[in-house]
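Revision sheet: structure tokens.
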Amino acid sequence: MSRDLTTQETAERSLIKTYRKSLWNPFIAAVKRYELISPGDHIAVCVSGGKDSFVLAKLMQELRKHTDHPFQLTFLAMDPGYNQANRALLEKNAKRLGIPLAIFESGIFHVTVQVDKNPCYLCARMRRGSLYARAQELGCNKIALGHHFSDVIETTLLGLFYGAQLQAMPPKLRSKNFPGMELIRPLYCVHEDAVVNWRNYNDLHFLQCACRFTEARDASGDGVGDSKRQEIKLLLRELKKTNPNIEKSIFRAIHGVQLDTFPGFKHRGAAYAFTDIYNGSPWFDGGANA
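Predicted:
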């Protein structure tokens, strides 16, 4: 007589069986395509408590089981000021899923709740800095975040519509403030819908953002509130009704930017104007064909 599987066992099995095509395969594709993990790496997998970071943690555990190139993992969570119920949910999910989570506390929510201009940006910056610092203290050389394919698309459109810039979210980047540290995004090719399906299949319940700004959005009644990211998410949902491949098109576009058609661009912090580099620059060959 076979025994019932635990929540952890069911979640792990579903990653490489039920959702192999939509989760495991694109996860592996991103790791290989963007060379995110090297033998000997010590990676801090940052777990915020949401669905994305938890599925990332489980995928990284599975990869470590099956890889021929050993690397170390530390599962790191920062409590930015969660209430008691949210902190308890974070700890409960980590235990149920078999993730040995190291939790440290910060007062980030206390700081950002007093800021009126770009509080989400400030919160993200402060969170990242805290995670870098703690990961470095623990001997890690990389931090892994749970940003996925859908985040990449939304961030690109947010920059275009509201930031007046054509800027994407890179799959990895070196830290400027923490020498020797690197940020990687192993879910870069994973669609959010796949994460949602995995969560629902396993009947799991994770944290949302858990800050006052998310609460305000939920209370607005339209699902948007003051959230521009949520506005972009809803816009894409509408556009996909007539063009189901619109997100794939945007994703391919950021992988094939045609610099010689732009009147200006930035590279490694330096600005280049078309009129300055039209003639003789290695970036341009005299301009696009007329």
